[in-house]
Specification:
The complex is a heterodimer of chains A (277) and B (253). Chain A is mainly α. Chain A has one domain (2-270). Chain A has helices at residues 2-12, 15-35, 44-77, 81-87, 92-126, 135-163, 168-171, 174-188, 194-197, 199-212, 220-227, 241-264. The longest helix of chain A is centred in the middle third of the chain and has 35 residues, at 92-126. The N and C termini of chain A lie far apart (40 Å). Chain B is α/β, with parallel strands linked by helices and 253 residues long. Chain B has a six-stranded mixed sheet, sandwiched between helices. In chain B, a hairpin with a 2-residue loop joins strand 4 (52-57) and strand 5. The longest helix of chain B has 13 residues, at 124-136. Classes of the chains: A mainly alpha (277), B alpha/beta (253). The interface between A and B is medium-sized, with 23 and 33 residues.
């Protein structure tokens, strides 16, 4: 239990996580609310959709940044794992649980505060209340997103230790890079059924749907580009949230299932291996 | 008990330990020059790095060991969980079943009170003391101690000797400090040179030896360095080990 308490405490108090996972994404949300919204008509349904798209996207950015920080937490802890798993009470399951629960708490706290601030900023700009309509769904989706992002970060780091720390500087940023790629990709590209396949877009779409609390288009890009500025909400094909939830859960289970045996078979690799100069 | 059977260790494609076989069922001293493979051998026994051959701790193959809470070490790699001294104590008490009072009492006895300090902010000596205390405080069956006197001031070295005699039933103590090693006269002593393990001989006996080139009948131990053979001879003419002050001198043979 101590490792879990420790992880929660450390992650909650991390200035890096609050800086990149919260302050940085609030900056982007402010851009979306006050600078990039000048062409958006002041129609409640359209404004809700616009706000929800930004909320989903900044949450994904936040998760990417927190995921990268968690990858670094694991980087520094992984040296002792080979010894501790053999000669202490530590098990891969306990270790993973401590990271998952730590991440769940910090991501939930930051995610819910971010949603509130996004709602407040967009409401202030458009002059109508634009807060999440289904907080229950949003909370559940943030928790699912936290599990997903943490399991990916953990898997990436374990892979680094397993293969070579030389890849550290590149691989650690994969969660963040993917969050930007799929975060913007979902808004500006027609990803079709890839929306379900990619864990990032699956989560992004669920967050948007939870925010507006009604079906959203699978092809959000067409909707954003052709309809948003006309004040129309017509679209073909809605997102099936069950597929998105199943996809996110499948990825989480897959990442975790791969991580456990990898953690078990780890050997120490010096951090210095990742030095550039 | 630690059993090594034909253990070889390669790191970055370089052979560090070659075909080592030994049985360790008491506290032994391990000597050897820098880069000879002492720490590498400890790391392999502690499960930190891979090896070839067989290493068993109380009959359990280290490669396949799971949650055997009977071995502790002061190797820095083992203490990567936790940011501050307090964190490390808090976490390892649970994971290694270390009584809280033991750790704090041992640390207090050497004037180590700054528990809020970050691990990376400790001086080299403080780091060694903390890790040695963490390794010994659970009074484990097996201890693996790498240079427990390194960078530690004289007064605290004697305290550590006292702890080493009191805690841990068996294991390996690696040191270069002959004056400290000499306090374990009864301890079996091994020497690693160029990846090969020699011994055991008694530390008390070794201290009385001088080093002569070639084979000598009745020598305590023969070692090979490059293509040359050297013997540790009790009645030899050269300077005795106990007079060398630091063990590094014998490595220059």
């Amino acid at each position: 239990m101590r490792l879990i308490i420790y992880m929660i405490k450390r992650l909650l108090l991390s200035k890096t996580i609050w800086g990149w996972g919260f302050a940085f994404v609030i900056f982007w949300a402010a851009m979306g609310a006050f600078l990039l919204s000048s062409d958006v008509p002041k129609l409640q349904d359209v404004d809700y959709m616009y706000t929800a798209s930004w909320a989903g996207t900044v949450i994904i950015f936040s998760l990417g940044a927190i995921g990268t920080s968690i990858t670094y937490v694991v980087t520094y802890q992984s040296g002792g794992l080979p010894h501790m798993l053999r000669f202490s009470k530590l098990t891969p399951q306990y270790y993973l649980l401590s990271i998952y629960l730590g991440a769940l708490v910090v991501i939930s706290v930051i995610g819910l505060i971010t949603l509130s601030i996004v709602g407040a900023m967009f409401s202030a700009h458009f002059g109508i209340p634009l807060y999440p309509r289904n907080m229950f769904a949003e909370t559940g989706e943030i928790l699912l997103a936290a599990l997903l992002m943490t399991s990916l970060s953990l898997l990436l780091n374990v892979a680094i230790v397993k293969i070579s720390r030389k890849a550290q500087n590149l691989i650690s940023f994969v969660p963040l890079l993917l969050s930007f790629l799929f975060g913007y990709g979902y808004i500006y590209l027609n990803l079709g059924n890839l929306t379900y396949l990619s864990p990032y877009t699956a989560i992004d779409s669920l967050l948007i749907q939870g925010y507006v609390n009604h079906p959203i288009p699978l092809d959000l890009s067409a909707f954003v580009i052709s309809n948003l500025n006309n004040g129309q909400l017509n679209y073909l094909g809605s997102l099936n949230p069950i597929y998105a939830v199943l996809s996110a859960m499948m990825w989480f289970l897959l990442f975790t299932a791969i991580s456990i045996p990898l953690v078990r078979s780890l050997y120490y690799r010096p951090l210095e291996e990742s030095r550039i100069a | 008990m630690i059993e090594l059977d034909n253990v070889s260790i390669n790191l970055n494609k370089v052979s560090i330990i070659r075909d080592v076989t030994a049985k360790i069922d008491s506290k032994v001293i391990l000597l050897g020059p820098n880069g000879s493979g002492k720490t590498t051998l400890l790391k392999a026994i502690a499960g930190i790095i891979p090896y070839m051959g067989s290493i068993r701790v109380n009959g359990n193959e280290v490669k396949r060991a799971r949650n055997l809470n009977l071995l502790s070490t002061n190797l820095p790699e083992a203490y990567s969980l936790g940011r501050t001294v307090e964190d490390v104590i808090y976490l390892y008490q649970e994971l290694k079943s270390i009584p809280e009072s033991n750790v704090k009492e041992l640390l207090r006895s050497v004037g180590f009170n700054d528990l809020k300090k970050e691990i990376y902010g400790l001086s080299a000596g403080q780091g060694v003391i903390l890790r040695t205390v963490m390794a010994l405080a659970s009074d484990p069956q097996v201890v693996l101690l790498d240079e427990p006197f390194e960078n530690v001031d004289a007064a605290k070295k004697f305290k550590i000797v006292q702890w080493l005699k009191e805690y841990g039933k068996e294991g390996i103590i690696v040191t270069h400090e002959i004056d400290m090693a000499a306090m374990f006269k009864e301890s079996p002593t091994f020497m690693i040179l160029e990846g090969r393990l020699y011994g055991p001989v008694s530390m008390g006996g070794l201290m009385e030896c001088s080093i002569e080139e070639g084979s000598h009948p009745g020598s305590l131990m023969e070692v090979q360095v490059g293509n040359r053979k050297f013997s540790f001879v009790k009645e030899g003419k050269g300077k005795k080990m106990k007079d060398m002050v630091i063990l590094d001198r014998i490595y220059n043979i």
